[in-house]
Model the fold of this input.
Amino acid sequence: MMKRFVIIAMAALTMAACGNKEESCSKEQAVRDAMGDYLVKEIGAHYLQGELCVPTLMIVAGEENGDEAQVWCDCWVDWYRVAGDTLKTVSGGNHSGLMTIRMQDGKPVVTAFEQTTDGAGFLPSAKRIFGQYFDVYERMHASQDVRDAARKEQLKEYVSRRGLNVSYYQDYGWDAVEL
Done:
């Protein structure tokens, strides 16, 4: 039987947010880690590199069937350099689409990522890939507030997990944002 879940708001899941659902939370975190690793290695490699590559994951929906899951997501991949207590953006971009994740050696691994296309093909490809979840994706993708909140939360978690002495992030031409 297929298990379905839809996450309407951004999915900034952290271990601390899981409460007593530790097993479920660790599984969610393992999937998020696999998605992040894939984005850094496979997508981040094509950008001008800085010191740190940090993905922002916004989960639109997911379906799980046995040892395979499909996750519809709106992701950003950003490279930063550290300048004092600030992460300064070097490069990055948006990568929305459908990730297929399978269990391999007891760990989730991204085995495919079908992305939306750029330019005139964006809307038709987004509608095809996101299907019944397109309205949720469209609202999430169009909201700068959702992106900013997800980015801030996930950068804060990244900095904390790695023990970095960073308090801000800054995009070129913009004021620094406190984490």
Notes: The radius of gyration is 16 Å. The first strand starts at residue 3 and ends at 6. The helical segments are 22-43, 122-130, 134-142, 144-162. The CA atoms of residues 68 and 102 lie 4 Å apart.
